[in-house]
Structure formats: C-alpha cells, structure tokens
Amino acid sequence: MYYLASFINILFTALNFAILIRVLISWIRVDPRNPLIQFLFAITEPILAPFRRIIPPASGLDFSPIVAFFVLELLRRLILGFLL
Predict the structure, then answer these.
(1) Which of 15, 51, 57, 59 could lock onto 64 through a cystine, CB 3.0 to 4.6 A?
(2) Residue 58, phi then psi, degrees to nearest 5
(3) pLDDT of residue 84
(4) Which domain holds residue 40?
C-alpha cells in the first residue's frame, strides 16, 4: 500500500510541475512543433481544458492553472486519505 501511495504522490507532483512549466513557457515564444512542448501540452491540456470552460480568461489572464493546482491537491489528499 505504501508503494501505491508513493506512486500517487509522485504522479500528482509531476502533474503540478508540468502545469507550472506550461505556465512559465506561456510567457515566452516556443516552437509548438517541438516534441517536448507537444508532450507537455498533451499531458496538461486534459486537466486544464475543463477548468478553462468553466472559468474563461479575464483580461487576458488564464486562471485555470491556479484552480487546477487546488483541485489536484484536493484529489491527491482524498486518494491518499483512502489508501493510508
């Protein structure tokens, strides 16, 4: 059970880092054909898209990553709470 909890913890940490990197690269110009950028978008877009539909950008600012951080942390704590 400990290994499963560790894996889930690492998975959610990796997702948070992926979202953070996506936010940071949104401030610079990147090549969308770059395989790393495409991989990053493939991982984060399924998480961010539902929040973007609910919370539209305000004054050009996208708040969906902030909401995603909170929801991912809540899910992580709920899942780990059931496992441990």
Answers:
(1) 51
(2) -110, 120
(3) 80
(4) 2-83
